[in-house]
Amino acid sequence: MRPDNERQKADIALSDAAIDWLVRLKSGRATADDHAAFAAWRGQSAEHEVAACEAESIWHGVGVAGDRAKRLDRKARRARVTRRAVLGGGTLAVAGFTLAKSGVIGPRLLADYATDVGEQRTVALADGSSVFLNARSALSVKFGAAERRLSLLEGQATFAVAHDAARPFIVEAGDGQTRAVGTVFDIDIRADEAIVTVVEGVVAITTDEAPDPVVARVDQRVRYLKRGRPSAPEAANADIETAWRRGKLIFNRRPLADVVADIERYRRGQIVLVGDGLRSLEVTGVFDLNDPEAILRTIEDSLPVRMTRLPFVTIIR
Prior knowledge:
The chain is of the alpha+beta class and 317 residues long. The protein has helices at 4-25, 32-42, 46-78, 83-87, 90-102, 238-241, 256-263, 276-279, 292-302; strands spanning 113-114, 121-124, 130-133, 138-143, 148-154, 156-160, 169-173, 176-180, 184-189, 193-200, 203-207, 210-216, 220-225, 234-235, 248-255, 270-273, 282-288, 307-310, 313-316.
């Protein structure tokens, strides 16, 4: 029996070879002999077949996700209208919001304000507040006589709130709500959590599962998962969390999975991490968000990873 480290090296070598085969076969220049050679390669052993199947799953998964994203982007560009114009009546608005949260309808189609890949935008609200939208973000706004309510449907935004004690300022993001009267705070929606960071003042965070508010102050952040409770406030550096507004991305021992999610906001195409062990690799540095390729090169040079760059997808393994 081979030692575990030798087996792992062999598995990695097979995985690399399988991906290299698919790159060749999907290049548009593959011949019938290439396809026959790949069939012979994958038939050498059960391990070869497993590696081939895993590589095909990665490839097809990326293709489906990429095609869906492109379709949603095309629809969003054609429909330069507000959420109210699209939906009309209140009943449809509620139904549309539910579908957006479930992922059936793209959030940008329901947004009053949205940004594309690599695009940032400052929104001046009617009450004197400002919202700074990061790339790939979507926001809807509904101001009334009793409250100012907004929904961050996806992405990241910093809110600079004009003081109005009679009308609280409430931002819905995921399954949580952040309430402020006059303050500055940032909300970052991730794949499995939302992060609220306070830049100035005080905010109160509640979730659907925890109606009792968690209070956060300057240089503190609170996290909450989908269908979860807010965390206790933890120390944070608001300047680092909002460095994107100054054209920078600052990482201090950030997991590679989080870094990849940030890069995808400023770069077209999907980045796929192959292997759970890669997700927790740590990245530290200060980067220019206008040059995401330089970030990828730094990751490749400084971490024990390999990258395969294809049209619309980069595979890190």
